[in-house]
Input
Amino acid sequence: MSKVGVCRISTMFIIILFILAVILYSIVSTRKDHVSGDVIYNYVSFILLSMCLLLTLPPYIACIVTKPRPISPEYCLTTAQVAEFMIQPQNQGDYKALSEITRKFINDRPNLKVWERDYRHGGLRVCEKCAIVKPDRSHHCNYCNRCVIKMDHHCHWVDNCIHEDNYKYFIQAITHGLLLSVVVFIILLIELLVQAPSHHKFSACSINKNKNSCRCILLYVAVALGGLVMVFLLFLVLDHCINLFRGQTSYERMYEREHYNRGCGRNFVSVMGTNLCQWLFPLPASRYNWWVGIELVAG
Output
């Protein structure tokens, strides 16, 4: 990982740890005086928080360390070939020449699976920076400086591309993170109701008592932070659930491409796996051939 990447990850961890510190400290500091006697409540909240945290951390770490696979050498081009494919056809003759170049290139490499075409001229999609023919569903990431297969987006929270091999971990991390934020928010609301009674007066944390006043302010800050995190994760999970069940990446959804949609069930299984353990934990799902779902015709 580069120095810039280390700085990004460190910054994100500091932000996350700060939010967690504010929330946890507010829970602990207020509970000492109000609900510490409720043993069942304490144990239940501790177990729920621990379980959600243990579910969230492994896929988040897996999302960071799972880097995109290198592109097969079969897709590599020479400088001359890049120049040929990057030509912008001006007339019918140019289109025929490009079509012939494409046909010859594919015939010379029979094991090459390339169905998608450049919408501008109908030829193969070529990345000039990487000097390759772009594999289907791949895009060039300017942050990673490479082409990534089935790239969804580059996530700065993990300093990594969300791609074919870690998309499952990303879905698990944000889903479990949402569950964690909901549990934290409910606990904070309970603490807030204990601190501020139903008559909406700060009798439990009077301004004359500096210690209780600070706790009350800190609790309100924690509730606000917890609510913001929960809402952010909720919209993020909903957005990617749409992609997951449609069999799309964010890029494909942006350009309204549904060539790989094989139905909600198959789309889900192709990413998340076939059993509950694979859905909940960052275990490798059995490979599912999404090539079968393509509706494009090589021309």
Summary: DSSP finds nine helices and six strands in the chain.
